[in-house]
Amino acid sequence: MTLSFESTSPSLGAKVSGVAFDQVLDDAAASSELFDALRQALDRHLVLVFNQCDLSAQHIFRLAAGIGGGTPFVNIKLPDNPGAIHVPDRPEIKVISTEFTPSGLPLGDAGNTLAQVWHNDGAAEDVPPGVITFSGKRTPTPAPETSWMNMYEAYARLPDKLRNELAGLKAIYWKGGRSPYFEDFETPQTQPEAVRRSGVRHPLVCLHPSTHRPYLMVPMHRDTLIEGLSGQESRRIMDILWDHMFALECSWSYGISAGDVVIWDNMATMHSRQGWTSEEARTMWHLASRARRAPLPITELA
């Protein structure tokens, strides 16, 4: 097995060739070698793309489990959709789809065609996912693009004064049902401050558990509150961070098509997605491997 990595942009991303998943994933020794190589590559490139490798549910599970280093999977299926049809023999797989079953039920967590703002998957969990494995099953033509931003670079490009201000600050991730869609991002907050102060706290600047490099973790809504700060001060910092994000040029975009498998570092990247107007269906398989620990603040660097 000779893996080849073709860089896709100066900031992040690589297309991977030279692996026959249907053979390697059934061989324990070969799988272990592959997972070690891919984890190292993921630390370097942050996003890995494999073309034309439509994997079975069992194989995509083995791949995601191996890349995740044996950590449990995070269940981020929609809680208000208990009757949704996902993958019966592999409950770890979340189906994201605009399709419906013959009986009219949503296939998986019913998706839509709206554009999404930059976000981390499962950020409101106590220990968010560290790695996301995504498999394209059915996509429109052309496929809507997913974009990833290098959050190491996002942090490195902050002014020194702002870096110092952010060190030690924690954002409050309220599980209030707000979505990653641009229409929610652009609307004012609708819940009182007291409600938005309940939720898990994560640092705005974190240390990556594998590379020990600092990265920026930005909540996906401007009305997010920061522990110990007033609502007004929280909004000031969030506006500065989002203005910084929208001005950056350290991202890469790719239209995930049927048969593609994409693996990304959910800590050192944030991602967004184009909307589309086509009535063609889009169905994806999504697996979220839990990080080894909760996000570590940069103050632990010393």
From TrEMBL:
A Pfam family it matches: TauD
An annotated GO BP: sulfur compound metabolic process
InterPro entries in the cross-refs: AtsK-like (IPR051323), TauD-like_sf (IPR042098), TauD/TfdA-like (IPR003819)
Keywords (A to Z) from UniProt: Dioxygenase, Iron, Metal-binding, Oxidoreductase
Claim: Iron is one of the keywords in the record: yes
Domain TauD/TfdA-like: 26-286
GO (cellular component) term, any one: cytoplasm
GO MF annotation: an example: taurine dioxygenase activity
Family under the similarity heading: Belongs to the TfdA dioxygenase family.
Record protein name field: Taurine dioxygenase
